[in-house]
Specification:
Layout lengths: L1 E9 L4 H16 L3 H21 L11 E9 L2 E7 L13 E4 L24 H8 L2 E6 L6 E8 L12
Antiparallel strand pairs: 1-2, 2-3, 3-6, 4-5, 5-6
Length: 166
């Protein structure tokens, strides 16, 4: 079984729960274990929130641009990609460079670290994605600019999963 979907969303806060609900609905319909669905939906929310906040030029009094979310459920793995048109990740190479989910340093870049305190409002998104996913890739879009984050996780299925692979 293989399904995928892609969304082009405006860089507005209201787009984050929309993407999250669509992912949860698709995974529930397919029969993915709710714990796996939850982990991936939180990681997606963090990636979308980063795209909304950092993913493009801001116009006077609002935001401009869009970002793209693509999700693939293929066999025993789910891969999610969020791409924006912002300045990209500092020091990231194109195409996307692998960042282990264990959040260790990669290719001369410091890996995302846990927030310094429980009250920090910035810096926890990439770290949280790394904790919830099996593999994380960060990179910059070649030619067009913008950041790309993709992450994947091995799927577990409910016993009554209608779309489970044989």
């Amino acid at each position: 079984m293989s399904i995928w979907w892609s969304l082009h969303l405006r860089r507005e806060a209201a787009s984050v729960p929309l993407a999250r609900r669509l992912l949860i609905g698709a995974m529930d319909t397919a029969g993915v274990d709710p714990d796996v669905s939850y982990d991936l939906s939180v990681a997606l929310s963090e990636a979308c929130a980063n795209a909304v906040e950092h993913g493009g030029a801001t116009t006077h009094g609002g935001t401009s641009g869009a970002y793209r979310v693509t999700a693939y459920l293929d066999g025993e793995k789910c891969r999610i990609e969020v791409a924006d048109s912002g300045p990209g990740f500092p020091g990231a190479q194109s195409p996307a460079a692998a960042v282990p989910a264990a959040v260790s340093a990669t290719r001369g870049r410091p890996a995302p670290r846990p927030p310094a305190s429980d009250t920090d409002e910035h810096g926890r998104g990439l770290w949280l994605i790394g904790e919830l996913a099996d593999h994380v890739h960060l990179g910059n879009r070649p030619g067009r600019g913008g950041a790309v984050i993709s992450f994947d996780k091995t799927l577990k299925w409910r016993e009554d999963a209608p779309l489970m692979t044989a």
